Amino acid sequence: MTEYRVLHISDMHLSQVRPHNVRNWDFCVAKIEELQPDFVVVGGDMVLDDPDAADDHAFAHAQISRITVPWRALAGNHDVGDTAPAPYQGQLVSNERRKRFLSLYGADYWARDLGDWRLIGLNDLIFASELEAEREQATWLAARLKEWREKPIALFLHKPLCLDTLSETVITQAAVTPVGRSRLLELIADSDVRLIGSAHTHRHRNFLCDSIAMIWTPTIGQVNQGFRVPRGGDQRTGWIMYTFRGQEVEWELMHFPELQPVDISELVKNYKAMRFVPPALSAALS
Ligand SMILES: [Fe+2]
Ligand SMILES: [Fe+2]
């Protein structure tokens, strides 16, 4: 039986000026070349910190484009802005910020069929945004799900759909908001969504929610021990490799000694955000 290997890699946070994550990225590019997965989900937060930093976008896109196997990218909050009501650094997702992502990476929602499975990537930053793009994505998703009603689906988002349960009411930058979550759940209610892969929290967790496997891929390098939410999880660097075979899926959390954690806790404490960190201090971390 044909099997398909899909790599879920995320939170690269790349910048030429503040290059502390580039060494780990170089390793990733070489390792992907060696492993030759059938597809790579690039899980978002390609850029260092500021969604309006044009140079970081150009550099990050050039770096991601070094991947030599088929790949698609998801938008992260650092790429297109964050969700209401308390977006990171006050930078809300907008048409303008999203447009830059589209010009670099193509559509921010996409489907890829691998045997019996359909993989669907969504832009969760526009969930509950009330932007026209939210409605367009929902219409597109409903059509893609209808075509695949009897077969398994793997969804990929940037932020986790929830921290613990689908009915939780907490509003946090760490996960999709309750309104965004309920809109998505309504859309997928009649479909066979088996797993939801996400990133964003820079840590691995996996748990079941109403028979859907929630699988959080870790970061390839940048860690912030100062983040208090969400609690727990495995903050070691790495990625998730999925193997899709028939109607089954297996996944493996992979770590590599070459992926050295880059701890930005002190810098964020001192400078509030990585965009304000003197470049020399970033370079000293790598
Ligand atoms: Fe991130
Ligand atoms: Fe993120």
Structure description:
- By secondary structure, this protein is of the alpha/beta class.
- It has a single domain (3-285), classed as Metallo-dependent phosphatases (Purple Acid Phosphatase, chain A, domain 2, 4-Layer Sandwich), CATH 3.60.21.10.
- It contains 8 helices and 13 strands.
- A 6-stranded mixed β-sheet has the order 4-5-6-7-9-8, covered by helices on one side.
- It is globular.
- The mean pLDDT is 97.
- Bound molecules: fe (ii) ion (FE2) (2 copies).
- One fe (ii) ion is lined by residues 45, 76-78, 158, 200.
Bound molecules: fe (ii) ion
Helix and strand content put the structural class at alpha/beta
CATH A-level architecture: 4-Layer Sandwich
CATH topology: Purple Acid Phosphatase, chain A, domain 2
- Could you tell me the radius of gyration in angstroms? 18 Å
Overall average residue pLDDT: 97
What is the approximate shape? globular
Assigned CATH superfamily: Metallo-dependent phosphatases
Number of strands: 13
Q: What is the CATH level 1 assignment?
A: Alpha Beta
Number of helices: 8
**Helix fraction by DSSP (H/I, runs of at least 4):** 25-40%
How many structural domains are formed by the residues? Answer: 1
Strand order of the largest sheet: 4-5-6-7-9-8
Which range does the strand content fall in? 15-25%
The profile of the biggest β sheet is: 6 strands, mixed
The stretches of 5 or more residues where confidence is low (pLDDT under 50) are: none
String of helices and strands = EHEHEHHEEHEHEEEEEEEHH
